[in-house]
Target: Ureidoglycolate lyase
Amino acid sequence: MKLWTRFKTAHGRFGFGVLQNDQILEYRGDMFAHPLPTGATIALTAVELLPPCEPTKIVALWNNYHALGAKLGKSAPVHPLFLIKPASSLAGPGETIRRPQAYAGKIVYEGELGIVIGKRATNVSVEAAKDYILGYTIVNDVTAAELIEQDPNFAQWTRAKGCDTFGCIGPVIAQGFDWREGAVVTRLDGVERQNYPLADMIFNPWEQVSRISQDMTLLPGDVIAVGTSIGVGSMKEGATVEVSIEGIGTLTNRMG
Amino acid sequence: MKLWTRFKTAHGRFGFGVLQNDQILEYRGDMFAHPLPTGATIALTAVELLPPCEPTKIVALWNNYHALGAKLGKSAPVHPLFLIKPASSLAGPGETIRRPQAYAGKIVYEGELGIVIGKRATNVSVEAAKDYILGYTIVNDVTAAELIEQDPNFAQWTRAKGCDTFGCIGPVIAQGFDWREGAVVTRLDGVERQNYPLADMIFNPWEQVSRISQDMTLLPGDVIAVGTSIGVGSMKEGATVEVSIEGIGTLTNRMG
Model:
């Protein structure tokens, strides 16, 4: 399994490479088009990790786990249900989650698997979908929960989930990760709040890439946040949320 | 009033400039940061017009006109209601609107004013909002109408409006345009279907930029589609939709 990471050095230089224990083997070129190793090795402690890719959009699913759907009494959808978190919402590993100035309500964490698109995908079949996935990352799909139902006529999913720093992704893109065996574990200030198997997804990653690519073109670096399951909860200022998926790592963000 | 345009020459060169009658006065640099005239003039007939900017997101409003809200029996919202059309949905003037392969239902046009953001906007006041607007364009907010209510639990606004070629914008960005006097006129195959005053907006452009910038950072070139009013209707294959706003021009797209 290859763990791709993007970073910034203490001198402000941007780079990317493959994480190996506490070292990054640097690569050059385009992460999505045959990148080449530079031969250089950089200590993980010497860099700041960035979001592992720069999505033009994060497609975020709702109601994609049987367990959460059953708990909420919602029937399984016939097509992935989604909204878009914009590029401006992106936050990397370790980045502080910021409360929007004009919003005083509840902010929740949602630990999720993220699919990272590897190449331009339009009308892709389920069978071919695997070839369009570079790898997998971890997402904290942060949400200003009280905005969603604020208007009686229009559920404000985009507004609630689109704020700056609400699209936390990282720490790496795991190439070769097998989602079928994985589980998402979310800890709030060290206490486990979510622990659910990825196998409980309603639409699996290949079905998602296929279906969504029939709605809109997915571009290299775009992320699909596959939805969350039981255990979503409120984050207070100062709280730390760690979302872990064995094989990918742990995405840690603190609320400022 | 300055009319900014982006274009591609017959030789495949990209450029931008100011439209003056049937000529483009070419500029260089960054359209959003003190561009400079090159001195060159290019005949409009010699180029293909592109979308006048490259938004990272199109923020598209729903229920933002008193007349349409009244007709639909919807109360006026207390905050702009919006979804995001992704960059992948962008189409320029003259570009063909394509039906998604997997969707056989009704596709509708929605003629709208578009606000083009001129500089990075976060938590901007209503008073200052004007300074963050480069100018105005025209939007055809194309929608796969039957997808919206397909799921009983989740209105699929993003999916219905996010398809490739469903974000038609252009032909230019009009700098100095006064929206208070304007009207949107939409013609389907030459027959007028929409004709409504911009002054009927619930949230005016300055309020929109202010409010939305409190939810998420708006970037140079981002577009806010301010919503549509009465007269939305179905487009069939082969139909031509022209959306006109005096002072900006006419955005023409044909459905392929």
Summary: Chain A has two domains: 1-50, 51-254.
